[in-house]
Write a structure and sequence with these properties.
The structure is a single chain. The chain is of the alpha/beta class. It is 52% helix and 9% strand.
Length: 401
């Protein structure tokens, strides 16, 4: 097998050669785009799921669909230590630049850009030194009295409303894509929900498409109680057997390569249907297989290499970010999740973790909160925690203490 022709792509956010199992989400988004463009009411969209299920890939694919319909688009990746104001400014600037060539009135475009610049400049602290001040690359003077109050909730509503009006002028829409949405601050989440709420009431053609970990709906609900009705939620899970076979078989077929049924059986068992793992095992198997058809023996030979790569790049890099106390906490989680009858990725009661470590639950709160902040675990329900990374418990159980 020629490694140069290897079609599989186990990379962070890297689109696989065959985006299998996501047809429903793509179809739903096409309907959203068409309804918004026709002035019909529609909700923004939130994708949730564990790491490695392809949320970022799907987010990028949805953005491509919006671009294909001549929408203005922008994308940001939320970070816990960064305010929403600056990245949103850059993303909406890109979206407006995409719409500008289709607008008949350049002055109107400049007017909205002036509002955007006023919004962006409020990202600078009044006490910041001149060398630390950020100047957005917008070649128009900032507007006065619009999106410049300093209150992110007020400013975001005004900015989104003005940007949406520009999209209305050209008969399309604007889509803002936010990856790692759970990392937004509580203030920014509240402002974003308020802006989406105002837009939905106005029927304005601007939507937010967010992606985040499974507890993202709880984050949104804590910010605004109406967020449960504000967004359309889509849980992105691992691939079923048919979709996993397509993800492996279609790219191989394009290269004149086939799989034995036993090989596909074993690949699904090894990968668990998680898209990132499907690509990782597929790539390693291709490189080790001497010829077509690929057999179960080829998978067995290649599996240690795939697992070694995952141990370093997917699991190990995350484990290394944790402190000794945090690692102890995760090891206890991994041990508890291996109990008979308990799925390895199931949520674990925090009280059980405290009991297993011989500690009081309150004393473990700092480690738990730090792990949540680092995106290694999440709390989907009160009093429980789970790993954000599939198969992470299995990985930890194989590592020496």
């Amino acid at each position: 097998m020629d490694p140069v022709r290897n079609p599989y792509a186990p990379g962070a956010g890297q689109r696989p050669p065959e985006l299998a199992g996501r047809d429903r989400e793509l179809d739903v988004f096409d309907v959203v785009l068409e309804r918004v463009a026709r002035g019909r009411p529609e909700r923004s969209l939130v994708l949730t799921g564990l790491r490695g299920v392809g949320k970022t890939v799907l987010l990028n694919t949805l953005r491509s669909a919006a671009i294909g319909r001549l929408w203005g688009t922008g994308k940001i990746e939320a970070r816990p230590d960064q305010s929403l104001r600056r990245p949103v400014s850059g993303a909406l600037h890109m979206a407006i630049r995409e719409l500008a060539p289709h607008h008949r009135d350049p002055d109107r475009v400049d007017e909205v850009l002036g509002v955007l610049k006023a919004f962006a400049l409020r990202a600078n602290s009044e006490n910041a030194k001149l060398r630390d001040r950020w100047t957005p690359g917008i070649d128009v003077p900032p507007a006065r009295g619009r999106a410049d109050s300093g209150d992110i909730e007020i400013d975001l509503v005004e900015l989104f409303t003005d940007a949406a009006s520009l999209a209305t002028d050209v008969g399309t829409g604007i889509a803002l894509f936010i990856d790692e949405m759970q990392d937004l601050s509580a203030t920014d989440v509240s402002a974003l929900c308020a802006a989406c709420h105002e837009l939905s009431q106005l029927g304005a053609p601007l939507i937010v498409v967010g992606a985040g970990l499974p507890h993202l709906p709880a984050v949104l609900s804590a910010a605004k109680s109406y967020s449960e009705r504000l967004f359309r939620y889509a849980r992105i899970d691992r691939l079923d057997r048919d979709a996993a076979d397509l993800a492996l078989g279609v790219p191989a077929e394009r290269e004149g390569v086939e799989y034995d049924q036993e090989a596909l059986d074993l690949l699904y068992e090894k990968s668990g249907g998680y898209p990132y793992f499907v690509q990782a095992y597929g790539k390693a198997t291709w490189d080790h297989a001497p010829q077509t058809p690929i057999t179960a023996n080829d998978v067995q030979v290649a599996a240690p290499e795939a697992e070694a790569e995952l141990a370093v790049g997917f699991f190990g890099s995350r484990f290394e970010r944790a402190t000794p106390a945090e690692r102890e906490y995760m090891r206890a989680m991994a041990t508890l999740s291996s109990d008979p009858g308990n799925d390895m990725d199931a949520a674990v009661p925090t009280s059980d973790i405290a009991t297993s470590l011989g500690r009081k639950p309150a004393s473990l709160s700092p480690a738990r909160d730090a792990l949540i902040k680092k995106g290694l675990i999440y709390s989907g329900e009160r009093g429980t925690v789970a790993f954000t990374v599939p198969h992470f418990g299995r990985y930890l159980r194989t590592q020496p203490v």
